[in-house]
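Q: Structure for this?
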Amino acid sequence: GAGVSQSPSNKVTEKGKDVELRCDPISGHTALYWYRQSLGQGLEFLIYFQGNSAPDKSGLPSDRFSAERTGGSVSTLTIQRTQQEDSAVYLCASSLNRDGQPQHFGDGTRLSIL
Amino acid sequence: LAKTTQPISMDSYEGQEVNITCSHNNIATNDYITWYQQFPSQGPRFIIQGYKTKVTNEVASLFIPADRKSSTLSLPRVSLSDTAVYYCLVGAPFSGGYNKLIFGAGTRLAVHP
């Protein structure tokens, strides 16, 4: 079946530009997560959506980062005025709304800021 | 949130059994233990999950002692394709007010011919 889909797979942009990263979760998954992974590092939690509840934004590194989830499905992570330290792989995951249900990950968007 | 500790790296040879142990001393009653595998340029992939005792599936076994303060991922007869980073996670995303799982640095497993 269809897994988590992320687009674009690669994004190269100039410092100061805004970028939008898209995540299509698995159908029926009400929980959606965004993570960031720098080269050779573990995953850093960014933001979590659960149904219609207010998102947990506690992992967002600055106010340049924002995310929304429309209709409880597709999510967009936006980074404004990008900086070189924003270069990383941005991963999205989704899961069912039950403990014991694992997260399913997309293959990420590799963001490079020149 | 329960913090996990696992070895940074391990080396093995094809055909051997590999055991990766994860410590999670402050695991909570509602927490599950989940292991993921990640290859370069891919997202993490779910391997196995358990709550207590032993869980086995087609790719791995997970051993959890009675106190649940640690867990061991066992990979039988590894091959070169098992070279990857393995993450141990502990959490209960939808109970106890916790709503995310914490990924540590993982264990980088290298399988040699």
